[in-house]
Amino acid sequence: MTLTTYLRAGHPGLALVTPEEARAEAEIAAVCSALERRLHAWSSTEGLVDVADNRATQCYDPLDALQLLDGLFAAESPRHVVLMRDLQLYLDRSDPPLVRRLRDTLRVAKANGHALVLLGCRLKLPPELEHDITHVDFSLPDAARLGTVLEGIMKSAKLKTLNAAIREAAIQAALGLTTTEAENAFALSVVESGGIDHRIVSREKARTLKRNGLVEVVPATTSLDDIGGLGLLKEWLVRRSGAFGASAKAYGLPAPKGLLIVGIPGTGKSLTAKATAGAFGLPLLRLDMGRVFGGVIGQSEANLRAVIQTASAIAPCVLWIDEIEKGFSGSQSSGSTDGGTSARVFGSFLSWMQEKDQPVFVVATANDVSKLPPEFLRKGRFDEMFFVDLPDALERAQIWDIVIARHGRRPTDYDTVLLARACEQYTGAEIEAVFIDALHEAYAEGREPKPKDILEAMSNTVPIAQLMDGRIAALRHWAKGRAREAGSKGAPARRHGRRVTGEG
Questions:
Q1: Looking at the domain assignment, is residue 218 inside a domain?
Q2: How many structural domains are present in the chain?
Q3: Based on the domain organization, do 200 and 233 belong to the same domain?
Q4: Which of 136, 171, 195 is the last residue of a domain?
Q5: Do 498 and 401 meet the contact criterion of CB atoms below 8 Å apart?
């Protein structure tokens, strides 16, 4: 819902949480003008200012300001909107007289059709005010707004008009940033390259999001060809790779919601998540659910809203959540362990997954699916759930081909079919670790790795399938009938320039 709707509905207390103070104030002023409301703004440095005539009243203490507002709100006409900057910082100090005065002021405002708008970078309210103040979403700037920022930078730098493709690439690269952050990224591009380079803007966005600590931009350098096996899963992704374009929308096709990949550690789940962004041609965001949960009341919910806001602004994109069970495993007992924080965050995430209208494709991976709440696995949250088992002989041969080539050697120099037979029950990660071990041994002796080096490294490796045989058996039993197999049976694969078939 918009600020206009809330004001027209007579909400007396509203809160906008955003670092973009100037843009928020401009939008509030525009709304007040459209609704013919008289706007005032208070801060601890300027006092109470009547925006219409710029007349200031000296009341730098918030308690004094609220007492002054009681008189302002006493009459029904004209209707006033008072913007309070950083009032949340005072409310966080557990000041009972201030909380009581604010509740009294909101009651008067409600009775006479006025409104109080709290503006700041965070929303931390005492319990007494949680039901009196409504949180209003303030989205990150859209492409049109960023286009205006870009034009301002170009005009300031006296640059020529950009062609449509370069302009669009720069704006797309800046999506997910605030107007100030986008302006800084565009300006840095001008200084470094003498013009607007979307690669510099993308780099700065990645740095900014990583600094914020909740999500980070991951370069989508992995493709589906970098994954050995998982034929059915890769085919499923390829068939949906075009579902984010304008033609799919015109066809009436809804954007895919997401994918849950469960399975044994080291079998390529995270690699598949990275490759999904490359297959779809979309930017990849990585979310660490552990960072979402904060120690301050309300911080976790605010962090999740920030993540959703960022992903929605960058959309279409892929949002990767690795080992999601670690973030939501405690939601069922949340009431007795963390005051219900995990349950509230989990509920908000599920609601967003179910109702999101932005093309954000969520790829979640899980090693221990038993820790996930049942409602998380219900159809409608994700488009599909795949189970990744240990690779079979054919898939292990494909993995050997990829690993050997990745480390600068020719797969044809090794009998990868023989190697695949020798490493039964190995995961893809273990196969790569074995080859790296062989490389170290060969390098120490100043030669190229030989098959005997690889076999010796295997003899020193205990695969996870032996260490976790009970858990793996339980996971296979759970996945049967609940999740689709990621690997294909009898699917042909290309190897050494010829077609080979085998059990998948």
A1: no
A2: 4
A3: no
A4: 136
A5: no
Same domain (yes/no): 359, 496: no
Same domain membership, residue 339 and residue 245: yes
Per-residue pLDDT tens, the chain, 504 aa: give them: 589 999 999 999 999 988 899 999 999 999 999 999 999 999 999 999 999 999 999 999 999 999 999 888 988 889 999 999 999 888 876 788 999 999 999 999 999 999 999 999 887 788 888 889 998 888 889 999 999 999 999 999 999 888 999 999 999 999 989 999 999 999 999 999 999 999 999 889 988 888 877 888 888 788 898 888 899 999 999 999 989 888 998 999 988 999 999 988 889 898 998 999 999 988 999 998 877 876 555 678 878 888 888 888 888 899 999 888 887 765 555 555 555 677 888 888 888 888 888 899 999 998 888 778 877 887 778 899 999 999 999 999 999 999 999 999 999 999 999 999 999 999 999 999 999 999 999 999 999 999 999 999 999 999 988 888 888 888 888 888 888 999 865 443 333 332 232 333
The H or E element spanning position 476 is: helix 469-479
The three-state secondary structure class of 64 is helix
Alpha carbon of 493 to those of 80, 404, 487: distances in Å?
A: 70, 17, 12
Of the candidates 121, 89, 87, the one whose C-alpha atom is nearest the C-alpha of residue 102 is 87
- Bridge partners of 286, per DSSP, are 216, 320
| Ranges assigned E (strand) in 154-264 | 215-218, 258-263
What does the DSSP 8-state code read for residue 379?
B
Nearest to 234 by CA among 420, 480, 488, 406: 488
Pure H helices in 213-358: 231-239, 246-251, 269-280, 289-292, 299-314, 325-328, 334-337, 341-355
The continuous run of DSSP H or E covering 343 comes out as helix 341-355
CA–CA separation, 172 vs 59, rounded Å?
44
Burial of 201 (0-12, 13-18, 19+ CB in 10 A): buried
| Sole residue written with tokens 């490796």 | 461
CATH number at residue 114: 3.40.50.300
267 located within any domain: yes
Residue carrying structure tokens 């201030």: 98
Tokens 């924080």: give the residue: 341
Instruction: Give the C-alpha separation, 11 to 15, whole Å.
Output: 11
Asked if residue 92 and residue 26 are part of one domain, the reply reads yes
Q: Specify the length of the chain in residues.
A: 504
Domain that holds residue 378: 224-388
